């Protein structure tokens, strides 16, 4: 199940990944009254790398904070590229990316 697709901005690349407004929040783990959760996200060409990404909810906005920049660096992402987050059939999360100039 696809949770979101986003074209990256310079803010996404410098600080945190702000999730788009149309993110399928029901596909994310529940916050259960907390403002922060940790989501293990697989990434890379074969999905073999995994990082614990901190997900924060403030004033109704969701953002990936700690861990996100590690994924961005490993995937050599730049502003203008696209990322997508999927929840796989086994319940795990996987992020993929594509070049924005293609």
From TrEMBL:
Q: Which UniProt keywords apply?
A: DNA-binding, Nucleus, Transcription, Transcription regulation
Q: Does the keyword Transcription apply?
A: yes
Entry protein name: TF-B3 domain-containing protein
Q: Where in the cell is it found?
A: Nucleus
Main localisation: nucleus
Source organism: Salix suchowensis
- Which InterPro entries did the record assign? B3_DNA-bd, DNA-bd_pseudobarrel_sf
Judging by the UniProt lineage, the source's domain of life is Eukaryota
């Amino acid at each position: 199940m696809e949770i979101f697709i986003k074209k990256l901005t310079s803010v996404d690349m410098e600080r945190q990944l702000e999730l788009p407004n149309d993110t399928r929040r029901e596909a994310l783990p529940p916050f259960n009254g907390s403002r922060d959760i940790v989501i293990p996200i697989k990434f890379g060409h074969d999905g073999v790398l995994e990082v614990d990404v901190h997900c924060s909810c403030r004033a109704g906005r969701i953002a990936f904070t700690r861990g996100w920049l590690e994924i961005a660096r490993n995937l050599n992402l730049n502003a203008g590229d696209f990322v997508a987050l999927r929840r796989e059939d086994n319940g795990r999360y996987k992020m993929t990316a594509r070049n924005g100039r293609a």
